[in-house]
Design goal:
By secondary structure, the chain is α/β, with parallel strands linked by helices. The protein contains 4 helices and 7 strands.
Length: 135
């Protein structure tokens, strides 16, 4: 699947399309260069899932936990600052992934051995358009 986003106004529809395309998946891996819009897209997806908490980047906290209107939990990770797989074990990464809650993971490369049935989301910038590809 591919979605072209040329305006922030298109984010809610893009988020909805991603969730509809992968209704059974709970782990989404986001790749893209710094500033490509990974966190912004994740925020839009969380809004589509009716998150009631304030959304922010987990760059320093590594993981943020959000609650939805229905009381469900969503985990948002930013693995950019982690250097070793041991650090993933230290934060209980595999338990988060096996919780059956949505897990949105930025900079997912370090955890590649942990992912099963994950959706790979790539964001590229081409002439001021964000090209979102998911498989």
């Amino acid at each position: 699947m591919q979605i072209n986003i040329s305006s922030l106004n298109q984010l809610p529809e893009a988020a909805k399309q991603l969730l509809e395309q992968f209704p059974q998946n709970r782990i989404f891996l986001f790749n893209g260069e710094m500033g490509s819009g990974k966190t912004t897209l994740i925020k839009a997806i969380c809004k589509e899932l009716k998150v009631t908490d304030t959304l922010s980047s987990p760059t320093y906290s590594i993981v943020n936990e959000y609650k939805t209107e229905m009381g469900n939990t969503i985990y948002h990770f930013d693995l950019y600052r982690l250097k070793t797989v041991a650090e993933l074990f230290d934060i209980g990464f595999s338990e988060y992934l096996s919780s059956n809650n949505y897990c949105f993971i930025e900079w997912p490369e370090l955890g590649e051995d942990f992912y099963e049935n994950a959706v790979f989301v790539s964001i590229e910038i081409k002439d001021d358009v964000r090209v979102v590809s998911a498989k």
